[in-house]
Amino acid sequence: MEQNERGVWGSRLGFILAAAGSAIGLGNIWRYPYVVGENGGAAFVLVYVTCVLVIGLPVLIAELSLGRRTTLNPVGAFRSLSNSKAWPWVGYLGVATGVGILSFYLVIAGWTLGYIVRTLIPTTEDFTQFVANPVEELGYFLGFLCLTVIVVLGGVEKGIERWSKFLMPALFVLLLSLISYNLTLEGSSAGVEFYLKPDFSKIHGSTILAALGQAFFSLSLGMGTMITYGSYISKRENIPVSATAVVLSDTLIALLAGLMIFPALFSVGMEPSQGPALVFNVLPRVFELMPGGAFIGLAFFVLLAIAALTSTVSLLEVPVAFLVDERKWSRKKAVSIIAAATFVVGIPSALSQGSSELLTTMQVAGQTGFLSLMSHLFSNLSLPIGGFFVCIFVGWVWGTKNAVEEIKLGTGETAQRIFWGWELLVKYVCPLTILIVFLNIFGVFG
Ligand code: PHE
């Protein structure tokens, strides 16, 4: 540890991999394909990539610089740079969002564990029966929560960094091989067309909100994860370069995941708009068709579980860092209490895939089922709202001049013009775009 008692990433690459590990997870491989499927395919993908580059990247740089300057959790970061009592509430929103996202994310992460067990000990139960079994759902959810707790208790460097180093490249290679196999399946070209040939009549206000929400979710933005991770980086770190590496790798994995899923989906004749179960319905069918598919399926779900773990760890880290810094709790106490709360909040999500009729079929805010509702509320609303306030805070309260000074500690003066572009985005383009997307959803433009 070099800066203070809170811990610092062990190396530059270690930080990039940990931040990429937070970003790359179920958001890329589970959420992205089903959101693309629900929003009509290729045109949505273009809107998504635009949101990532124009909004995601600048917000990521803003969050990292805020974290590194203050070396604090999100609540403390906002408090220490402003005199107003209102700003820490953006941090509290982030802490609550961390628990909210974790509560349903762990249910899906539990499915990956379930699949691993089912490959090792084959059953006749299909996916629909599996997710409708309350004992299995709650058991795997709890199992994944325990794994997350073990890693987070290990602390920043040993706990989180060590895991991210080798496994992300392995996931990448496996994705490439699955894509090349799936593209040879009969009828797969319809999937390629759905995924890559844009039909712009499918873009509406809600499509843009979904793309924005997915960009925030996938890059772990808008709830202070990257403020917290930024608080553990050293002053020598080149923030813009690291942020760009994280954004590119995250987006590449998502784009590849789509290319893996849609050709296979059309080939086995399923619906693209079937919601959260999509990947779990399609992939096992592909593994059945493939020679050696059981082994490849096992490898795939093991890597997916690990990718999910490096994300659940970063979600849990936000409320934990808050309680440790602000309330002076021990790490152990903070982790146990947040984990217990997360489990309670997650129970309805775990029971919303067939176990409970009410939770499975409820229709709220255009979403069917409790888990979809949570995913919509926290990703599409809470995260962009958090991101909006990060922009206002860094752009206008702390000030981009101060932020640039902080960022320059690791880049030197060379990048002057880039900073100018970034200031423009953070002060005007990002907050205005988010605002317009929201006003549009609430019908302000008719
Ligand atoms: N980005 C993670 C994923 O794509 C999820 C996440 C969201 C993690 C928000 C932290 C904060 O799986």
Description:
By secondary structure, the chain is mainly α. It has a single domain, classed as Orthogonal Bundle (Hydantoin permease), CATH 1.10.4160. It is built from 19 helices and 2 strands. Strand 1 and strand 2 form a beta hairpin. The protein is globular and about 60 Å long. The site of phenylalanine has 15 residues, from helix 1, helix 2, helix 10 and helix 14. Phenylalanine binds next to helix 1, helix 2, helix 10 and helix 14.
Quick gist of this model?
This protein is mainly alpha-helical.
Number of domains: 1
CATH topology tier name: Hydantoin permease
Strand arrangement, major sheet: 1-2
- Structure annotation, total helices: 19
**CATH class wording:** Mainly Alpha
Query: Helix content range of the residues, please?
Result: over 70%
CATH architecture tag: Orthogonal Bundle
The H/E string reads HHHHHHHHHHHHHHHHEEHHH
Largest sheet: 2 strands, antiparallel
General form: globular
Poorly predicted ranges: none
Q: How does the helix and strand content classify structurally?
A: mainly alpha
How far is the first residue's CA from the last residue's CA? 55 Å
What hetero molecules are bound to the protein chains?
phenylalanine
Mean pLDDT figure: 91
Q: Note the beta-strand portion.
A: under 5%
Number of strands: 2
Gyration radius, rounded: 21 Å
